[in-house]
Design goal:
Blueprint (H helix, E strand, L loop, with lengths): L12 E4 L2 E6 L2 E12 L4 E13 L2 E3 L1 H6 L3 H17 L10 E5 L2 H6 L4 H9 L8 E6 L6 H13 L3 E7 L6 H7 L3 E4 L1 H9 L1 H16 L3 E4 L5 H9 L4 E3 L14 H11 L11 H16 L4 H6 L6 E8 L4 E7 L23 H8 L5 E2 L3 E2 L6 E11 L3 E10 L3
Parallel strand pairs: 4-6, 6-7, 7-8, 8-9, 9-10, 10-11
Antiparallel strand pairs: 1-2, 2-3, 3-4, 3-11, 4-5, 12-13, 12-17, 14-16, 15-16, 16-17
């Protein structure tokens, strides 16, 4: 079979029933593709090309296969895999979806094929370089200059660059800043941890937001359940991938089932910031706010609050300084002495719960969960501005503990 891929001898590639497969030593290599979806666009926008390995007719582990290769062997295997993926690229309705292909670190180090050569090879199949997303493992053992030169050459030629497996082990934020990838693929352990741990779930949106602010699209890998898909969507990740949306296959399509799953996710409102009884706490805060504006002292109001998750009430003047002492409920920590426990005279002017309340008087605000400075426990804060007969314009705040 004729093919235009340099460094891949023709005798290593054959076709069976119209599907290309390759031969590398005693291994048979095949292609599989997994859909990558955009929840906002509600459709498949790309696919990752995955290599499947057989040895003597039995499936072999692809990771172990590549781990056992070095130098020229690694480059040759990587090149063969890429050729197979191009030859087997599924036909789709739009025919403009991204194709994500892995690049072995040794291929980057040796650079035996130039970006210009790859552009020419792709053109013979009617593919523009913009359709290919080159995945570089985040932990790849490459010098900064090796990686920078590779990225510059291929990006200038029109290819997209992705950092793969971000978050596995000790992630290198410097590499993200230096490479400035178009897409960052979060390691599958991150979404699994977010589904299993309340604390990890709270941190997950912040990681996504940080990477987006660095200028990259965020792709969440390893989504296997509806719960994990909801977490990723609630975190505003742009791209999603995993068994929940489709297992690797030789052919892909935007099926009604796939579109239905995405539509179901987008039709669901975001998760509430407090896991339990947020409306009840809102009502309790409104009662406290009303009593305070009518002249009832905060410490009297606090003693009447029976919910064990509510720990404190306090007021802030219009300049951002706390008015008097904090009013503790019966359930607050007592007898705990540390340098941060006394908030008398504290300035909360830069806190979002103060600024937002001042900007929208009479409207109740609710923060995301955060670590309380004074109590060293996770909480969320209700706040609302009011006019007090003694203190004038001020903000009333109520802290509610968050499980985690």
């Amino acid at each position: 079979m004729n093919h235009p891929f340099s460094l891949v001898p023709p005798e290593l590639i054959a076709r069976t029933d119209g599907i290309a497969h390759g031969r590398f030593r005693e291994f048979t290599c095949r292609s599989a593709f997994q859909p990558i979806v955009s929840p906002a666009l509600m459709r498949m926008v790309g696919m990752e090309a995955l290599l499947r390995i057989d040895r003597d007719g039995a499936p072999a582990d692809t990771g172990i296969f590549f781990d056992g290769l070095a130098g020229n062997d690694a480059v040759d295997a990587c090149r063969l895999a890429r050729a197979l993926h191009i030859l087997n690229l599924p036909l789709t309705e739009r025919e403009n979806e991204w194709l994500f292909v892995n690049v072995h670190p040794e291929s980057i180090r040796q650079r035996r094929v130039s970006a210009a050569t790859m552009v020419t090879e792709l053109a013979s199949y009617g593919l523009a370089p913009q359709r290919l997303v080159l995945e570089i493992v985040e932990s790849a053992p490459l010098a900064d200059d090796e990686l920078a030169d590779f990225v510059a050459e291929y990006r200038d030629a029109g290819f997209r660059i992705a950092i793969d497996d971000f978050g596995a082990g000790a992630s290198n934020y410097d590499r993200v800043l230096n490479v400035h990838p178009d897409i960052i693929k979060l390691d599958r352990t991150l979404i699994a941890n977010a589904a299993a741990s309340t604390r990890a779930r709270r941190l997950f949106p912040h990681m996504v937001a940080l990477l987006r602010e660095a200028g990259s699209l965020v792709l969440v890998e390893g989504i296997e359940t509806e719960e994990q898909a909801h977490i990723a969507v609630d975190a505003d990740a742009e791209l999603l991938q995993g068994w929940y949306f489709g297992r690797p296959a030789t052919q892909l399509s935007d099926t009604e089932e796939l579109q239905g799953r995405i539509g179901k996710l987008m039709g669901r409102p975001g998760a509430t910031r407090l896991r339990n009884d947020s409306e009840r706490f809102r009502g309790r805060f409104l009662d406290a706010w009303s009593a305070f504006r009518n002249g009832t002292p905060l410490d009297v109001i606090a003693q009447g609050i029976l919910e064990p998750q509510v720990t404190r009430l306090y007021a802030i003047d219009n300049a951002g300084y706390q008015i008097g002492d904090t009013a503790f409920t019966r359930h607050a920590l007592r007898g705990v002495s540390h340098p941060l426990s006394d908030s008398t005279g504290a300035c909360w002017a830069r806190r979002h719960y103060f600024r937002h309340a001042m900007e929208q008087p009479g409207r109740i605000q609710l923060t995301r969960p955060y670590l309380s400075l004074t109590e060293q426990r996770l909480c969320a804060t209700f706040s609302c501005a009011t006019s007090h007969p003694q203190y004038g314009q001020c903000v009333v705040c109520m802290d509610v503990l968050v499980d985690g």
